[in-house]
Design goal:
The longest helix is centred in the N-terminal third of the chain and has 15 residues, at about 15-30. With about 180 residues, this protein is α/β, with parallel strands linked by helices. Helix 1 (about 15-30) links the parallel strand 1 and strand 2 (about 35-40). It is globular and about 40 Å long. It has one domain: Rossmann fold (3-Layer(aba) Sandwich). The chain has a seven-stranded parallel β-sheet with strand order 4-3-2-1-5-6-7, with helices on both faces. The chain contains eight helices and seven strands. About 45% of the residues lie in helices and about 20% in strands.
C-alpha cells in the first residue's frame, strides 16, 4: 500500500473551488491505486477523503486525528475515513503525516498547512525522512515560494526538494 499524505486547510466547504480541487485530487489518487492520508477532519481533509472514497478504485482513507484538535474545535473525524490513527497532540499528528507516507501533496490552507509544509521540507532537507515526492498544488504556492525564496538563503538543491503542480492530474503524475 502506497500512502500519500495530503495537507490542506479546514475552511473550504462543498461547492467552493478549493473543495472541488481537493475532491478531484482524492479521486485521482485513489484511481492511481494510492491510499490517501489526511488530518481527518473538515474542509480540504474531508474533500480529499470523500474523493478517494467515491472512487471505484477506493484503496482506503487514513485519517490522522488528535485529541488536542477536538478539544480546541468541536469536530469529529470525517465519515469517509476507513482507518483512523489517533494521537494525543497536534505535534504527534503532524509528525505522522509528514513522515509516514510515500509522498506528500499540499493544497491551500492556513497556518497549520504552512507548518506542515515547512516541517516536511525541513525533514527532507536534513534527511530525517528519505527522499520522496513533495508537491505543492496550486498557484498560491508558486507565489508564496517566490516571495519566500526572494528573502531566504535556500540553495538550488534545497529548492529542488519541492515540486509545483497546477492541477490534480499533474500532482498525481508527480507522485506516481
Amino acid at each position: 500500500m502506497r500512502v500519500i499524505s495530503v495537507f490542506g486547510g479546514s475552511h473550504p466547504r462543498p461547492g467552493q473551488p478549493e473543495y472541488q480541487l481537493a475532491y478531484e485530487l482524492g479521486r485521482r489518487l485513489a484511481e492511481a491505486g494510492l491510499t490517501v492520508a489526511t488530518g481527518g477532519y473538515i474542509g480540504t481533509m474531508s474533500a480529499v477523503s470523500q474523493g478517494a472514497a467515491d472512487s471505484a478504485a477506493n484503496s482506503g482513507v487514513i485519517g490522522v486525528t488528535c485529541d488536542e484538535i477536538e478539544g480546541w474545535r468541536p469536530v469529529r473525524p470525517n465519515r469517509w475515513i476507513t482507518r483512523e490513527i489517533r494521537y494525543r497532540t497536534l505535534l504527534e499528528r503532524m509528525a505522522h503525516l509528514v513522515a509516514k507516507n510515500d509522498g506528500i501533496i499540499a493544497l491551500s490552507g492556513s497556518v497549520g498547512t504552512l507548518a506542515e509544509v515547512a516541517l516536511a521540507w525541513n525533514q527532507l532537507l536534513v534527511n530525517v525522512i528519505p527522499p520522496r515526492p513533495f508537491i505543492l498544488l496550486g498557484e498560491q504556492w508558486r507565489r508564496i515560494l517566490d516571495v519566500f525564496l526572494a528573502y531566504a538563503p535556500v540553495t538550488e538543491s534545497h529548492r529542488a526538494l519541492v515540486q509545483l503542480a497546477d492541477t490534480p492530474e499533474e500532482a498525481v503524475a508527480l507522485v506516481t
